[in-house]
């Protein structure tokens, strides 16, 4: 799978698990600060998780073998520019659709920020009821964004109604709630296709209102008087700019119910210990399992019936391979195509070969001989290189022989364990298709028979 698409899938699956745990275990609790931390941590963990390696579950030696296992299935590079699609990548269409949606939403966010900047420019500083504010001529009501509270000049004429509004907005400002809002908007823009992210954003904004309501009451304002002030809000008032907090009656019934809800017993904190660590453990455990070489055998645990099987350099069978414990496997090479299988055995009756090496026999002579003869990935050390590492001769060859192709940025150095001979694999892309060309470290092009 395309690395970018795989990242999106992993991140959104984990975020969905966090959201499910929140709505199932935490939403009804009155630990609003813990809920705030949980929701922010969920988004940050989901964003970082796909890039996290799990060394405790995946030793470095195994990691290199997993990367090497793909070598046996690589197509031979063409000797002339391709005339048709070599590997139609349907995933490109998905990524284009995702980028289009994300770009539109990020653009909308930038427009909203610009709108708020214009509102701030038009407002004039003032002090109302002892609170520094910015006065607006428009009838936008009271709202806040960042460290500023905005009040309409018409609202100043009614100090009794304005006082609870100011205290509510002070709570948003004092607790830096705008940071959460910006994170919520950006996360939603970048994961717009995931229904769970919209539920997550709703939970974030809803919880911030609960925090501000509670802080307002704790500031000394009588609870019943504050509830009446909520009821007096007029839904028809001109709304504040997008992204801004406003003292509004949105979901009024739920907010008043939360104000009157008894505090959750402290023993209910165990739910957070159950929710967040469980989701993280599931995610990291899944990464470790997928990273093990043995996981390559679990592609529906359905090893192909019509395939040639080798175990530790010797002919084997499907049933024997299926009985292996994943932790005992050092590497797995999937070999596709009669020409590639012929390097494993001279007269192959199959189009596929699965070559498995265990930890116990990884360094044995027969295993090394098979890896060399069949040119298997497990016979190489593999290292990713930046495109800048390519010599000008490589770039010149690509420009001359593949003028319609572009470098994908994927360059790998394959060093044969037995001889130390190295070659570079360069991925080229034409339209929605990709293919590989190979060079020696000195820049000399390798034709198919020389590889």
UniProtKB/TrEMBL annotation:
The chain crosses the membrane at residues 6-25, 37-58, 95-119. Keywords: Membrane, Transmembrane, Transmembrane helix. Residues 166-258 form the Peptidase M56 domain. It comes from the Bacteria. Pfam families: Peptidase_M56 (PF05569). The keyword Membrane applies. This is Signal transducer regulating beta-lactamase production, contains metallopeptidase domain. It comes from Hymenobacter arizonensis (Siccationidurans arizonensis).
């Amino acid at each position: 799978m395309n690395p970018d698409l795989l990242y999106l899938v992993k991140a959104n699956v984990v975020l969905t698990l966090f959201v499910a745990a929140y709505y199932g275990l935490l939403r009804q609790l009155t630990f609003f600060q813990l809920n705030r931390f949980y929701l922010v941590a969920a988004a940050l963990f989901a964003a970082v998780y796909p890039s996290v390696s799990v060394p405790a579950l995946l030793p470095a030696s195994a990691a290199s073998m997993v990367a090497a296992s793909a070598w046996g299935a690589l197509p031979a590079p063409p000797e002339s520019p391709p005339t048709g699609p070599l590997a139609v990548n349907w995933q490109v269409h998905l990524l284009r659709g995702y980028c289009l949606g994300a770009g539109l939403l990020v653009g909308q966010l930038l427009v909203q920020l610009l709108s708020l900047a214009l509102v701030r420019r038009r407002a004039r500083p003032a002090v109302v009821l002892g609170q520094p504010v910015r006065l607006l001529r428009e009838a936008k009501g009271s709202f806040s964004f960042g460290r500023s509270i905005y009040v309409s000049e018409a609202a100043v004429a009614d100090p009794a109604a304005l006082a609870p509004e100011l205290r509510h907005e002070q709570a948003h400002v004092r607790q830096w709630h705008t940071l959460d809002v910006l994170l919520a908007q950006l996360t939603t823009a970048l994961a717009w296709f995931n229904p769970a992210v919209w539920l997550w954003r709703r939970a974030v904004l809803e919880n911030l209102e609960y925090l501000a309501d509670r802080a307002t009451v704790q500031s000394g304002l009588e609870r019943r008087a504050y509830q009446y002030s909520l009821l007096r809000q007029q839904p028809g008032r001109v709304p504040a700019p997008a992204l801004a907090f406003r003292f509004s009656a949105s979901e009024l019934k739920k907010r008043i119910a939360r104000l009157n809800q008894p505090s959750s017993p402290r023993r209910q904190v165990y739910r957070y210990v159950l929710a967040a660590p469980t989701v993280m453990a599931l995610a990291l455990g899944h990464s470790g399992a997928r990273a093990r070489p043995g996981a390559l055998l679990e592609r529906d645990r359905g090893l192909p019936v019509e395939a040639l099987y080798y175990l530790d350099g010797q002919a084997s069978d499907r049933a024997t391979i299926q009985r292996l414990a994943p932790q005992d496997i050092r590497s797995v090479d999937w070999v596709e195509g009669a020409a590639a299988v012929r390097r494993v055995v001279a007269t192959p009756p199959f189009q596929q070969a699965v070559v498995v090496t265990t930890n116990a026999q990884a360094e044995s002579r027969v295993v090394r001989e098979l890896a060399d003869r069949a040119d298997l990935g497990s016979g190489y050390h593999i290292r990713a290189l930046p495109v800048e590492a390519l010599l000008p001769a490589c770039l010149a060859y690509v420009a001359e022989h593949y003028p319609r192709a572009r470098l994908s940025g994927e360059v790998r150095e394959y060093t044969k364990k037995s001889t130390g001979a190295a070659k570079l694999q360069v991925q080229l892309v034409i339209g929605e298709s990709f293919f590989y060309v190979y060079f020696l470290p000195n820049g000399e092009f390798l034709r198919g028979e020389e590889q």
